């Protein structure tokens, strides 16, 4: 497949490359073979003035919250109790889970997200249906059910034994499937898990090479409840004690950490899923970006649907820019384009995607950019910061169309 289009590609954390007229060639296996200035010859489709970018990476969101986007005003624990848990209880019903899984995967693809790290509800069957929907849509994902054996309504609790058995069976079917799907062990957050379950979950992840993902230090009330429940010196030590902090783990939010916690986090090789829109909407606080950058901690962006309000990762990037500004740090737009694409892919250890470079797999998004936006900096600014910007026209994963307007 030979496509002609404008191209914007992340080169490094502070550089994006703009090609105003380019050839993008993809082989039948879905691998990029050429990305270079247009120099004539045949093409299958001329997509100009459309702009091709790599697909976006959403490193943290919740599939069973798809239908409560916008409901998250109020502090975390109250929102979980009043809006989130009642909605997630509905995922005991297969028909509901199946319908929302279809809506969720369609929403991701329509937003230009090609790789995500998605939390399910506690129900193993709902997680199975999520994997089926991700597979049918052709997306790339790391996903799993959440684990909860305390601190939530009874109907949402599942003891460690059956929960981990079901998770292992899920991993048997889906971990590594088609090189696109991986399974995560997701103790939801410390308040909803007993220490024995977290420890068993950590062992399962190690034994099967699964991802670990959870929420960390999001809300002040959550932090003090956690340290008092576990009689811990700090929040991170709870996950350390459970064996959950290592180079295949990803932690959402990471707002209220001490320097000691940041140092230990950095030493572990774990990644941060930065969810700035959710942090604003729930009033959780600002993620201290400098603590991450100074320590070279792997960083990705998360929409955190439904505490976050949009599936569109450029909106989350825009929010990340604002968050940094509030902390006195003027970041470059190129940094957020990188984090939304290649940086996010690397943080999720998917080096085969995230940029439009020969040899990588062709996960791409076509944006309907007006032809009068021509200056490279304006192209980048419009993509990230123009919140009424024209929508995504088409999304591909491995060269295959997964969404088209
Ligand atoms: N902490 C525990 N569960 C959740 C959740 O569903 N959303 C967010 N933002 N934080 C959480
Ligand atoms: Zn979350």
Characterise this structure.
The structure is a single chain. With 405 residues, the chain is an alpha/beta fold. The protein has 2 domains: 2-54 and 353-404, Urease, subunit C, domain 1; 56-311, Metal-dependent hydrolases (TIM Barrel, Alpha-Beta Barrel). It is built from 14 helices and 16 strands. It has helices spanning 76-89, 94-110, 124-137, 160-174, 195-208, 220-229, 235-241, 259-268, 276-281, 289-294, 313-326, 333-340, 342-347, 376-385; strands at residues 2-12, 15-26, 32-37, 45-54, 56-62, 113-119, 140-144, 146-147, 181-187, 211-216, 249-253, 271-274, 299-301, 364-367, 392-397, 400-404. The strands form 2 sheets. Strands 5, 6, 7, 8, 9, 10, 11, 12 and 13 form a 9-stranded parallel beta sheet that branches. A hairpin with a 2-residue loop joins strand 15 (392-397) and strand 16 (400-404). Helix 2 packs parallel to helix 3, helix 4 (160-174) packs parallel to helix 5 (195-208) and helix 11 (313-326) crosses helix 12 (333-340). The longest helix is centred in the N-terminal third of the chain and has 17 residues, at 94-110. It is globular and about 65 Å long. 55% of the residues are buried. Zinc ion (ZN) binds at residues 60, 62, 215, 252, 304.
Kindly list the characteristics that best describe this protein:
Urease, subunit C, domain 1, TIM Barrel, 2 domains, binds zinc ion, 25% strand, binds guanine, alpha/beta, 9-stranded parallel β-sheet, 14 helices
Taken in chain order, the helices and strands follow as EEEEEHHEHEEHEHEHHEHEHHEHHHEHEE
Estimate the mean pLDDT confidence. 97
By CATH, the topology of the largest domain is TIM Barrel
What is the total domain count?
2
Query: What is the CATH H-level superfamily of the largest domain?
Result: Metal-dependent hydrolases
Tally the helices: 14
The N- to C-terminal Cα distance equals 20 Å
CATH top level assignment of the largest domain: Alpha Beta
CATH architecture of the largest domain: Alpha-Beta Barrel
Count of distinct strands: 16
Rounded radius of gyration (Å): 20 Å
Q: What ligand molecules are bound, each kind once?
A: guanine, zinc ion
Q: Are there runs of 5+ residues with pLDDT below 50, and where?
A: none
Shape: globular
Structural class: alpha/beta
Could you give a short account of the major beta sheet?
Answer: 9 strands, parallel
**Residue fraction in strands:** 15-25%
Report the helical percentage: 25-40%
């Amino acid at each position: 497949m030979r496509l002609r289009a404008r191209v914007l590609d992340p080169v490094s954390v502070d550089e994006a490359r703009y090609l105003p007229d380019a050839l993008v060639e993809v082989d039948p296996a879905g691998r990029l073979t050429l990305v270079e200035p247009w120099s004539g010859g045949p093409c299958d489709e001329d997509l100009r003035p459309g702009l091709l970018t790599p697909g976006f990476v959403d490193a943290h969101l919740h599939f069973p919250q798809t239908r409560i986007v916008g409901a998250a005003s109020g502090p975390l624990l109250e929102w979980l109790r009043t809006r989130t848990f009642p909605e997630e209880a509905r995922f005991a019903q297969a028909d509901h889970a199946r319908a929302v899984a279809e809506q969720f995967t369609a929403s991701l693809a329509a937003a230009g997200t090609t790789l995500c790290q998605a939390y399910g509800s506690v129900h193993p069957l709902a997680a199975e249906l999520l994997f089926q929907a991700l597979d049918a849509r052709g997306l790339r994902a790391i996903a799993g059910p959440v684990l909860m054996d305390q601190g939530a309504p009874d109907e949402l609790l599942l003891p460690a034994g059956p929960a981990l058995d079901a998770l292992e069976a899920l991993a048997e079917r889906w971990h590594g499937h088609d090189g696109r799907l991986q399974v995560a062990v997701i103790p939801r957050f410390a308040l909803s898990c007993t220490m024995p379950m977290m420890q068993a979950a950590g062992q399962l992840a190690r034994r099967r090479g699964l991802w670990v993902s959870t929420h960390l230090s999001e809300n002040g009330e959550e932090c003090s409840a956690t340290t008092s429940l576990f009689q811990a010196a700090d929040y991170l030590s709870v996950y350390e004690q459970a064996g959950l902090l290592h180079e295949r783990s990803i932690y959402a939010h990471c707002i209220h950490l001490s320097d000691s916690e940041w140092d230990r986090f950095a030493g572990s090789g774990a990644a941060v899923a930065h969810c700035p829109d959710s942090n604003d909407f729930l009033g959780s606080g600002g993620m201290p970006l400098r603590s991450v950058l100074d320590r070279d901690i792997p960083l990705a962006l998360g929409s955190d649907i439904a505490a976050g309000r949009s599936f569109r990762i450029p909106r989350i990037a825009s929010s990340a820019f604002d968050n940094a500004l509030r902390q006195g740090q003027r970041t470059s737009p190129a940094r957020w384009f990188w984090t939304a694409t290649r940086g996010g892919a690397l943080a999720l250890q998917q080096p085969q995607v995230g940029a439009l470079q020969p040899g990588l797999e062709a996960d791409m998004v076509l944006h309907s950019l007006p032809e009068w936006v021509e200056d490279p900096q304006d192209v980048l600014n419009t993509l990230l910061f123009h919140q009424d910007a024209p929508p995504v026209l088409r999304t591909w994963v491995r060269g295959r169309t997964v969404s088209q307007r």
